[in-house]
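Dear colleagues,

As part of the handover before I leave the project, I'm documenting each prediction I ran so the next person doesn't have to rerun anything. This entry is a single chain, and its sequence is reproduced below.
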Amino acid sequence: MPKPKKTPTAVKTAKQAEKTVKDLSARGKLAMMAVRLTREDGATLKQLAEEFRWKENSVRGAISTLSKSQKDSGFNLISEKQDGIRKYRLVPISE
């Protein structure tokens, strides 16, 4: 009787699981970024890139997505430059 092969389905399943985790964490990171941006001091691109292990251009894209989606949720994206460093914040829309 030949030895059974190592299950390639297990490898596929692990790869699929890894992809699923990455997909879920991407959605989770946007939510975490929104929470981070609602803090009083906001955050810089560099801080967000380091915190989420993204490139700065990816952070810009995420901020753009958040600014569009958060307007429906009652928040505005504020971009301020202090001492030559740009900070982003999500603030409630005042009525």
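The chain has three helices and three strands. Residues 7-12 have pLDDT under 50 and may be disordered.

All the best with the project,
I.
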